[in-house]
Automatic annotation (TrEMBL):
This is Precorrin-6A synthase (Deacetylating). Pfam families: TP_methylase (PF00590). GO terms for molecular function: precorrin-6A synthase (deacetylating) activity. SUPFAM superfamilies: Tetrapyrrole methylase. It is an enzyme of class 2 (transferase). Residues 1-223 form the Tetrapyrrole methylase domain. Its EC number is 2.1.1.152. InterPro entries: 4pyrrol_Mease, 4pyrrol_Methylase_sf, 4pyrrole_Mease_sub1, 4pyrrole_Mease_sub2, CobF. GO terms for biological process: methylation. Pathway: Cofactor biosynthesis; adenosylcobalamin biosynthesis. Keywords: Cobalamin biosynthesis, Methyltransferase, S-adenosyl-L-methionine, Transferase. It comes from Actinacidiphila polyblastidii. The gene is cobF.
Amino acid sequence: MIHVIGIGAGDPEQLTVRAARVIGRTDVFFLVDKGSAKSQLNEVREGILAEHASGAHRVVVVRDPDRDRTAATPGYAPAVGDWRSRRADAFERVIGEELADGQSGAFLVWGDPALYDSTLAVLEEVHARGAVAFDWAVEPGISSVSTLAARHRTGLNQVGRPVQITTGRRIADGGLPAGVDDVVVMLDAHQGFTALTGLGLHIYWGAYLGTEDEILVEGLLDEDLALRISEVRAQARARKGWIMDTYLLRRPAAR
Ligand SMILES: C[S@@+](CC[C@H](N)C(=O)[O-])C[C@H]1O[C@@H](n2cnc3c(N)ncnc32)[C@H](O)[C@@H]1O
């Protein structure tokens, strides 16, 4: 059995009791290595293993294939597809080679595996290829989106209204989606909110949520606030070498 375990968005205490139990019963952990800038993320994973895994567990590092991040938007999907199938090659190899009969393996996934994470899609691809036989199960985790809402002490939706979760790339290409009052933006390397000032939107922004470096900014999204968030973001990124941020944009009409 392969467990795909959501570990929360940075605070090890976000791990569910159930996930901690599954970790305690797992034989082999597959740690996907995304390079040094993100090694702090693996430090969180290692801390969780030190606390909850059995003394007999093993860790197998899976080198993440390089990804073409230079692809312009039209080429983005094929670039991801190619990277995903190379990642499937790596998963197939470790599942086939590193688990003895009857042993269980696990992937520790940041936040919740259901949200902007490729582990489940990659495992499906490996399973469909049929070269290695395995079953898999998912343990939900607390996402960065849940953490953002909690830290700002707000809900994600307004009464009876929809909420959309999308990417910075989509916001940059198409602006704010129509018909939605609340939009959560993830994976935004280019601060798409800076192009959305003057619309009377309210922004709830958070970086390094759930960690000791957590930064929160909230307010009416005018040029001053957009500039302030950009500056705070740039300084934090320079200090730590990487950043993960998420924000909620709320339309005023429904407020
Ligand atoms: C590949 S997605 C993974 C999302 C993850 N599965 C989840 O449930 O939060 C990475 C994006 O999640 C967001 N993110 C993840 N952890 C975060 C954190 N601790 N603080 C702020 N944003 C975070 C950022 O938008 C980042 O670009």
